[in-house]
Amino acid sequence: MDSLPATAARVGAIAPFHVMEVQTAARALEAAGRSVVHMEIGEPDFPTPGPVLAAAQRALAGGDIYYTSALGLPDLRSAIAQHYADHYGVSVAPERVIVTAGSSAGLLLVMALLVDRDQRILLSDPGYPCNRHFVRVLEGEPVGVPVGPDTNYQLSAATIAQHWTPNTRGALIASPSNPTGTTVPPAEMAAIAATVARLGGRLIVDEIYLGLSYDLPAGGRAPSVLGSAGACADDLFVVSSFSKYFNMTGWRLGWVIAPERHVRDLEKLAQNLYISPSTVSQRAALACFRPETIALLEERRQAFEARRNFLVPALRNLGFGVPVMPTGGFFVYADSSRFDADSQRFCRTVLAEAGVAITPGIDFGRHRAEAHVRFAYTVAMEKLEDGVARLRRFLAG
Ligand SMILES: Cc1ncc(COP(=O)(O)O)c(C=O)c1O
Questions:
Q1: What is the mean pLDDT of residues 106-127?
Q2: pLDDT tens digits, residue range 273-309?
Q3: Mutation probe of ligand 1 site: the residue of 108, 173, 177, 241 with most atoms within 8 A of C-beta
Q4: Nearest residue CA, atom 6 of ligand 1?
Q5: DSSP-derived pairing of the beta strands 372-376 and 331-335
């Protein structure tokens, strides 16, 4: 008999990332000599921009690697605020910016601020899986609202109102989303912000993929919710990150823009949960906003857009269902039910027989998960072309 005490119930409620299992199986195949096209990986293949690396090296050489304020380096908070003015045309007070250990820590801080036991947060299903786990770890109740092509696979003002109960504390939206790559249009975002405010709740918007938006007019920018939400903008929580647009996943750095009256409480939570975000990463990230870095990142954004422009029609041509064109990030959420009613089995077979690694829908929720798979275009165009050719041969045979 096991004499150790049982673990807390919350641990049993946390699902593992199936994508990691796909990745492990893919690596095992590679170790056995097979080639695999990786379309499961949720991070940019581009390396950290040179100016950022150089800034990190200078920081290391200078030796000033001590804890910072839990809110982050003042210079970095100001630089992030300035980025909103330069890039998105919105004015953000630097005092509202909290630098965090990835947007993951930002999401956890905001949930810890807002959610009490049994309180509900509305989330889209499919959606980014960690969100429901953050809520659950805090003894709250994540409520997955089934979404589909009719609302761009996003929550809408109408679905939020419909699922709201007296116990609902707020709604969390990722726009552009993981796994669907779809965006909430600005007018709908304004309606959502107004609806959540009218219902007495809080809106959290995850804009981690916003910098990677496509179909923009030359020199144009996708609007931040801070620009679309009108009078509600001061009461929103916006979560973002250096991971995706800035190609800095492993540096573990993100930020939250919070209503000013909540900054002190978020600071207390951050102090206690992790003291401060990584100092080297913060000093490195100061170089993110230099014109030469932004120019490089814009080239990379265009490379992602070209990959999307290749992959979506190619998948449709193979018979996958992609009813809404993804407009950001680097994922395509495709209906694979025509090939197999069980997308987990389909992913296993595609990996074993075609040597293409993709992620089953089960990672992103329950709603029609077995009918969907996620493709990531985080590999070079030649590899994407190879992946599509492999799928074509597999599906034909
Ligand atoms: C929608 C979304 N939010 C948040 C995160 C967390 O990213 P990070 O902690 O690296 O900022 C991810 C990572 O894939 C994501 O897809």
A1: 98
A2: 999 999 999 999 999 999 999 999 999 999 999 999 9
A3: 241
A4: 104
A5: antiparallel
